[in-house]
Amino acid sequence: MKPLLLIFFGGGFGSVLRYIIGKWLNNTENTIPYGTFLVNVLGSLIIGIVLGYAAKVSNTSNSYVFLLATGFCGGFTTFSAFAYENHLFLKNGDYFSFLIYALGSLILGLLAVFVGFYFSKVF
Question: pTM here?
Fold first, then answer.
């Protein structure tokens, strides 16, 4: 029962923070949904740090991973919104924004996970 509560609280906090960032950065003036882009890259960095640290420190509690990696990062990042926004770019024929957003999210997201693992080893 404890893991479910940790995931619930972490996911709730992550979802609320994602909503706030999306309201702040996603607007009709920008062609790229910067809020979704930012949360996906930040979430990738955070999950890299959390899981890298958990792999490095053998006595890391599963509670830490449930709360931060599964809960917070699961609620904070949003692949479904990413997929929908790319669908809109393609539907509207905005191939340039599609390429920049899709490739940028993928490349920076992967890079952020590696950087997170690196930070977890160094600090």
Answer: 0.82
